[in-house]
What we know:
This protein is 22% helix and 13% strand. By secondary structure, it is of the alpha+beta class. The strands form 2 sheets. It has a two-stranded antiparallel sheet with strand order 1-2. A two-stranded antiparallel ribbon has the order 3-4. The longest helix is centred in the middle third of the chain and has 17 residues, at 77-93.
Amino acid sequence: MSSNPIDSSTEPITDPWSGWQERRAGRNPDAPYFGVGHPGVYWLNLRTGPGRSGEIGLSSLEWIGNHYRPIGSAAGPSTERHWKTLRRWVAKVAVRIPRSGDLAGTGAEIFAFPHALAAIRNGTTRDPNPF
């Protein structure tokens, strides 16, 4: 017999929430709340191919930061240091440009890496939305 309870069980679990005790209610009262996501996770949404009309897709690199620190789910110091180092690297390698319109226009809010920036300067349009 296995010491792993999953290996030894042969009966289907008819009610997976039986015995569940909610520590903190979530937004949806009909679904269990497992808490916020891990504060050390980054998301990379990469758009590698041309968009609907051949434009450069808008990729993103995201981190929730310490949004959930007030409820006890803070990122570790190493995550904060890594994020700051990553931001500095992006600022060194890429150029901050407006999401749309003239490159010399106002509202520079996104970073274009060298290959994408060269394509934009050569007339390739950019998709202002990441999805």
